[in-house]
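User: Hi! Is it possible to get a structure for several chains at once, not just one? Here's what I have:
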Amino acid sequence: MVKETQKTTFEQNMEAMTKLSPREMEAKVAELTKMCICGGCPTYSGTGEKRLLFCATGKSKIIKKEKGCLCPGCPVQKKLALRWDYYCLKGSGKEQAGI
Ligand code: SF4
Ligand code: SF4
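Assistant: Yes, the chains can be modeled jointly so their relative placement is included. Here is the combined structure:
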């Protein structure tokens, strides 16, 4: 019988990432930053914010107002099994997961 494959959770992905070396982690962050679509988001546009990847790095100090969030359609959201939104305002995936 074929064993049912279970989806990897965000928490499991974060656990796996703790095993990366600093160099591997840096490469991973660079890869994910390239995939981040915050730049095209109405909440981001026109604020002067330059940072990206809030799901990993946490809240923006500049963005203050919700005007829509593209995160649910972002490839990083899917890749890491993130399940939240407005990371720029609410905090990173880890913060929103309480881990
Ligand atoms: S999930 Fe949101 S914050 Fe994270 S990389 Fe995608 S667009 Fe950026
Ligand atoms: S985290 Fe969501 S709301 Fe914030 S800038 Fe990125 S896509 Fe927009």
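Residues 17 and 24 are 9 Å apart (CA to CA). The chain has a mean pLDDT of 95.

User: Great, thank you!
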